[in-house]
Structures are given as structure tokens and as C-alpha cells.
Fold this sequence. Notes:
This protein is of the alpha/beta class. Helix content is 36%, strand content 17%. Strands 2-1-3-8-7-4-5-6 form an eight-stranded parallel beta sheet, sandwiched between helices.
Amino acid sequence: MHNTLVSLIGAPTDIGAGARGASMGPEALRVAQLGPILETHGVHVLDRGNLSGPANPWLPPVDGYRHLAEVAEWNRKVHEAVYAELRVGRLPILLGGDHCLGLGSISAVARHCRDAGKKLRVLWLDAHADFNTSALTPSGNIHGMPVACLCGHGPQELTGIGGQVPAISPKWVRQIGIRSVDPGEKRFVHEQGLEVFDMRFIDEMGMRHTMELALATLDANTHLHVSFDVDFLDPDIAPGVGTTVPGGPTYREAQLCMEMIADTGRLGSLDVMELNPALDVRNKTAALAVDLIESLFGKSTLMRA
Length: 305
């Protein structure tokens, strides 16, 4: 991964979330020295600063969606910013913000892959499948819907971002660490054929085997996108998220996951989502996230050359 050109893009909004505070995520990652730490690995880091978008009006849902117009505007801005970095050969790291922004980010990566004639593989590291629709979720919080929207299920304002509906095929997605799925969402995930490695699978088969399957058939023409929701991690080690679900990967399991992604040499873009410093303990979740991102860029905790 040496001589990689990385661009940090802050998206300070909690517009799609059910709790306030993810808007402070980008700054917490900067306080935890994300840029300087990556630079110690020979990565050239450019911090593009923060995108700006509509404030969070904190209103109840309308027709099944909370803040749909604002979510759409934020995602359009994220889409354009991520796409611009990919076009000039840089690796964008989106600093969230809540996970609804994965829609703008991944639709941009998919558009770039169409331009470049590349295959796309999306690793969705999350406690949640985020495959809800307004019909399936009573909350209307759009951070539970981005994967469904990317696969063409959702309001046109969201599914159309990036110019092609659906933006991606469910077959390109591997979900890892899932342990909280609504009943209706579970049926929908099965119908759509998403490949899900839930915590039961990881418990039974181990993280190594899980990642071997999730990364299988990557080739030189594959762009690997990692969408890392910090609630993927066990809340004992990562309390700073709005939607904690007990029983997530341990520190070592998460490190192995990141190291095996790094070993592929295919990482092309990254989202770091749902970090909520308002719920954190002395920024420890941000520091852990930075530690894991460092592993994605080649820090191995093992004594290997």
C-alpha cells in the first residue's frame, strides 16, 4: 500500500440517525491523529476538510422517512466528493457521520467502477444489515436503509444518486459482523441474496475463514470498498456509537479482519461511520477506529516482514 494517495473527507452530520452526535465523528478521528498516523506508513494524506450540508432539523418521519430531502442533499455532496477523488486516482476515506452516507459514497465508487471497467466488492462491516425500507422500519431513520437504497429499494431521491438504478447488485456485497436485524428486514435480505456473515457464523467458523470467503475471487480488476460502521465492534471496546449491540468482534478479531483486507492489496475506498464522540469515553472508540484503519494500510501486529 506504499505511496498510496489518500484523501480524508469529513461529513459531519447525524441526519439519518436516531441519536445526535455522529456529526462530531470526523473531528474525533482527526483528534485521534488519523492523518499523521497513516503518514507514518508512507501514505500521502490530504485532508479535504469537511463537507457542508443542511442542518439536522430533528423532525419526525414524513411518509416513512426522516429528513429525506436533507439526507438526499448530504448524499449528493458525498457522492460528488468521493467520485472526484477516485477520478484523480486517490483513495477516499469518508469520515462519517451516520451510515446513511454510505449511499453517496458507494454509489460514487460504483460509478467510478463503471467508468474504469472494474468489478466492485463491498465489505459492509456492521452490527446491522442496513437493508430496511420505509415499509419495514417504524423509525424512518435512513441510516438503516443505505444498502437497500443502493440495491434499488427506496425513494427515487436516494436510489437515483449516481445516475444508475440500482447502483450496485446485492451480489457484490459481503456483510460481516451482523447481529441485529429486524424480522421483515431478515426476509428481505434473504430474498435479495445478500451474502451475510453474521456473528453466529464468525463464532462457529472463526474470523479467518469468514474473511477468506468474503474476500474470495478478488482479482486485479476488482475495486474493494470497505464500509466500516464502528458499531461492528463489540461495545465493550467501542462504546462511542448510537446503536450498540453486544457480542461483536473482539479487538483481535477486528485486527485480523483489517489485516486480511490489507493483505489483498485491493483496498480502493473506505467509509468510517457512526462514530459518536458524545457517547464515547475519552475518545477511546475513535482511537480504536484509527488503530484498525492503520491496520488496513499495512500495520501488522505480527512479527512479519
